[in-house]
Design goal:
Blueprint: E1 5-8, E2 12-17, E3 29-34, H1 36-46, E4 51-58, H2 61-72, E5 80-83, E6 90-95, E7 103-108, H3 124-127, E8 132-136, H4 144-159, E9 163-167, H5 172-175, H6 178-185, E10 193-196, H7 198-204, H8 210-219, E11 224-228, E12 234-237, E13 242-245, H9 259-272, H10 277-291, H11 304-316
Parallel strand pairs: 1-4, 1-8, 2-6, 4-5, 8-9, 9-10, 10-11
Antiparallel strand pairs: 2-3, 6-7, 11-12, 12-13
This protein binds 2-keto-3-deoxygluconate.
2-keto-3-deoxygluconate binds next to helix 1 and helix 9.
Length: about 325
Amino acid sequence: MGIDFVSLGEVMVQLNPVTPGPIRYCKYFEVHVAGAEANTLIGLQRLGYKTGLITKVGNDEFGKLIINTLKAEGVDISRVSIDDEAPTGVYFIQRHFPIPGQSTVFYYRHNSAASKLSKDDIDEYFITSAHTLYLTGITPSLSFSCLEATEKAFLIAKRSGMKVIFDTNIRMKLWRESNRARKAISKFLSSDIIFTNPEDISILFPNISINEGARNLINRGAKMVVIKLGPKGSMVLTKERTYQLNAYKVPFVEDPIGAGDAFNAAFIASIYKGLTIEEALENANAAGALVVTVRGDIEALPTWHELEIFKQSLKKTFLLR
Ligand code: KDG
């Protein structure tokens, strides 16, 4: 079948206000399609890889929009199913309020079609047709059946010798209690590459320092632990050493949501292309920086050529890293 990366997770319609500020005053909203796993897969598509997604959408207009979008981006949609009972998930974004430069999400996804994903949707043949399984901590938080589906995909991949990449992506609005998040996410920490951030590490390892927590992840078998520090840049830990790179400084922030997924796609694509960890971090920081300058998670995901133009343009101006 020839796909490189396979994933499972919810894709939603994102309603992003044209104006910043408290959402109750926002009159006009743009419609975007987004979801952590789909964002990264689309990022990988733009960087030349073939991807496939297992998901469920409602039998509604938003579901049709999501299918059309995934298809247009080249993602294999043969395992996207339609649930006749439950609706497609939706979320709203509030931008630049109460913290300028930051966004807040409001989910309308409880009992959504994707939350009904279950073990039965995990097709072993489809999973093993890829060389890498990409998962995030969002899918297991959606429902018990989603947790079971994620575990099944993980076990199939591990058993068949595939690579597994996992982003901890702890969304406390979904987990509600850190104990629940910790218990579920711990099941996936023997992945080959782990993407995370200091907040997630402190939820996973509450009584130790961030550095020790990150080291714990290496001790559990991860070959690389990639720590995203937002505007402060990013780090990679391997068994042998630590790498760190400052972020690109962009002239303005439109909406930072989705930057982490863009970062992941560029990092993964760079490593799989044989680039060094330093080069991968630079590309990942660049892709993340680009995405914060545009509303929507997938629109500004760059191609290799666009990444180069972006990096060169920032190097040429006084907005140095
Ligand atoms: O990483 C960006 C995602 O968080 C956003 O698109 C919404 O998938 C989403 C989620 O579950 O929070």
